[in-house]
Design brief:
The protein is mostly helical and 258 residues long. Helix content is 75%, strand content 0%. The chain crosses the membrane at residues 12-36, 48-74, 86-108, 158-179, 186-209, 229-250.
Length: 258
């Protein structure tokens, strides 16, 4: 009997409980910021922009915790394969749910704030432009690839915006899972090497996505701008397949720690 649908359902709702807490905290913070900007008479940051930036780190953390569901399921007779398939499906559902919920709340917030309170939201196009100001520092590239990720304005194309948002959340989840699975399987020393691989996966994701969307690149990778869009899209898909494949290998025969 295949147990992965139940694993997917259980993990999805367990992680959604954490997600509701995260989105709730972000909503409260955003309301406080709007009140402050109302008093000052300045533009405010919208809920969508706030979640867009913070959710990347949140998804890495959720991914890091994904490996700790494995001992529970194995102890209850679930195979490692079913755990892997269920966790993967749960991550896809989570990556879709967060942008959709965020977009709905953002639409309601924007109507209330701009129509009733007459406050304008600050544009966040700078997220896509600031990368060109980085002076070729690899640390700066890494920070930007986590915090200021490629962005599509929902007002211009909401389907593409949700799709890009979801894709990035999914990859960040995989990166966290990739790291925690390596530590669980091999220990600290080898796990640190896998962190370096995860960093490269994230940087490549960022640059492939930027090229695919026609967004600016940092000077370090400006030569990649000439790559055809089809190549970068294929690169993104291969990057995801590679990460998923390695996670499967890491969890396939891992010893369960009690």
């Amino acid at each position: 009997m295949k147990n992965f649908p139940k694993v997917a359902r259980d993990m999805f709702w367990a992680q959604m409980i954490w997600t509701f807490g995260f989105l709730g905290v972000m909503f409260i913070i955003n309301i406080v910021k709007i009140v402050i900007n109302l008093v000052r008479g300045t533009e405010a940051d919208g809920y969508y922009a706030s979640v867009l930036i913070a959710s990347n780190i949140f998804m890495i953390i959720i991914g890091l915790l994904a490996i700790y569901f494995l001992p529970y399921y194995v102890e209850n007779g679930v195979t490692r394969k079913d755990y892997f398939k269920g966790a993967l499906l749960a991550s896809v559902g989570l990556s879709l749910a967060i942008p959709i919920i965020t977009a709905i709340i953002s639409i309601v917030e924007q109507f209330i704030v701009t129509t009733l309170l007459n406050i304008n939201f600050r544009g966040i196009d700078i997220i896509n432009e600031v990368v060109s100001d980085v002076d070729g520092n690899i640390i700066g590239d890494l920070v930007l690839s986590v915090i200021l990720t490629p962005y599509v304005d929902p007002g211009s194309n909401w389907i593409l915006a949700i799709g890009v948002f979801s894709l990035q959340l999914f990859i960040f989840y995989l990166i966290g899972w990739f790291i925690s699975a390596s530590f669980y399987r091999f220990g600290t020393v080898t796990g640190l090497l896998f962190i370096l691989v995860a960093i490269m996966i994230n940087l490549l994701k960022d640059y492939f996505l930027r090229i695919s969307l026609g967004l600016p690149l940092s000077d370090r990778f400006s030569t990649l701008d000439s790559l055809p869009q089809g190549v970068t899209v294929l690169g993104l898909l291969l990057l995801i397949v590679f990460t998923v494949w390695i996670i499967r290998l890491l969890t396939r025969k891992v010893a369960i720690k009690m």
